[in-house]
Every structure is written in structure tokens, then in C-alpha cells.
């Protein structure tokens, strides 16, 4: 039985560790933070943008962007004076995606559901304090919400993130919530008090929902797999265009089909 979510923590331990982690490569971490600074829809960033988003000094950013460009992770555009992500970023992620065999198993199930309900169905897992899509299927390219592989979405404001929180171990969950409190205190104050009710609803229904809280044009429903797979909690999410539809009507139609999809996926994965 999954442990019940505790009441929202009143404080977070922000004190430094007694001893620094001598194995932690700060320069490497800073370089990765630069690559993660790009947001969906952004083609290029300059050194000033990197510095503002990472908190690093401009000289440090300049050294890192030069190094990452030499290695192929960034591509410099002289006309703009900015940087694009390089092809090396794709090559590093390919091995991860290719090794996630759940994607191949889940894809036809996801596509069938997407076509039946005219929506987008995605598979995701946690990345730091966000969720990231690792597979997605859409009924049509014309729907307003078109998630794609590699795109991230917030943990607390989405059905996928909430489903992850409901299935994750207490240790993982508390660690993520503490990080969110430090990184995004506004989101923490708004959503964390709702978590006990979200958890209670999940225990009764087997899924989590989002009433257009993240995007005002999409209702979200999400179901986590019954247990971790290779140490990771996967979640199947369904984003349905609002388009004047009543939430209750969509919930009664979509949520049971999503729960059934995950149960079938668990059977194919040998979890049942």
C-alpha cells in the first residue's frame, strides 16, 4: 500500500551540509545548467540570457558557452550573437530514449486512445522538479496542445506531476517538494496545501486530474504505473482540449479509458 501524503511541511532544511561533496564537479553542473536554460519555443540564447537564468557571472558563462560550442553541444550564430542547441545534445539523449523499451510497448496503446478521444496521450517521468515527456501520441496535428518528446511541464500544476507525487516514495516526494519550495515558493504556497485532497482523490479513483490549471485550454488526467520500472516512476497523461466541454463530462469518459490503458500496459510489462 502506498504511503499517504503527509501534511505540507512547514519548514525546509536549507542549512548547508557539514562537509561539501568533494566528488561534485561544479563546472560540469554549471555547463549542464546552461543547456537546460532553453525553454520550449526558444531557438537561441545569448550569454546575457544564460547569466540571468543560471545566476552565473558573465565571464563564467562566456567560458562555458565557448567550451560547449567546441564540443558540439551549442552552435554559435554570429549574425545574432547567440547560441542554438547543437546536435550533440540529441546524440546524448538518443541512448536514453532507445533504452526505454516501455515507449515501444506503450506507443500503440497511447495512439489508439488519442484517436478515440481526440486528444494527446503522453508518457513521462520526473526530471529534477519537473516532468518530461519521453513518448507522445496525438489524434491530429491540429489540436491546440501538441506535447512533444523532451518537453517539460511543472510538477504541482499538472495532472502528470501530481500522479508522480502520489506514486513516488516518501523520500523522493519530500526531496522534490523541498526543492520546489526553494526554487518556486509561489507554486509551493499555492499547490502544496491541495496535496492531501489530491492524494485522497487518487486513492479513490486511481488517477489525478487538472482542471485547466496549467493551461486554460487543456484538461489533464494522469495515471502512474503501479510501481517503479527500473527505478523510475512512469506516468501516462492525457491532455484533452477544453473547447467548451464540461470537465465532468470529459472526466467520466476519458479517465476510465486512461486507467484501463495503464492496466493493459502493466500487464504487457509483466507487472500484473
TrEMBL record:
- Which Gene Ontology terms cover its molecular function? DNA binding; DNA-binding transcription factor activity
User: Keywords assigned by UniProt?
Assistant: DNA-binding, Transcription, Transcription regulation
**Residue ranges of region Disordered?**
1-21
Query: Which InterPro entries does this one have?
Result: GAF-like_dom_sf (IPR029016), HTH_MetabolicPath_Reg (IPR050707), Tscrpt_reg_IclR_C (IPR014757), Tscrpt_reg_IclR_N (IPR005471), WH-like_DNA-bd_sf (IPR036388), WH_DNA-bd_sf (IPR036390)
For the IclR-ED domain, which residue ranges apply?
88-271
GO biological process entries = negative regulation of DNA-templated transcription
Q: Where does the record place the HTH iclR-type domain?
A: 25-87
Spans through the membrane? none
**SMART domains in the record:** HTH_ICLR (SM00346)
PANTHER family xrefs: HELIX-TURN-HELIX TRANSCRIPTIONAL REGULATOR, ICLR FAMILY (PTHR30136), TRANSCRIPTIONAL REGULATORY PROTEIN (PTHR30136:SF33)
Q: How is this protein named in the record?
A: HTH-type transcriptional regulator TsaQ1/TsaQ2
Gene name, please?
A: tsaQ1_1
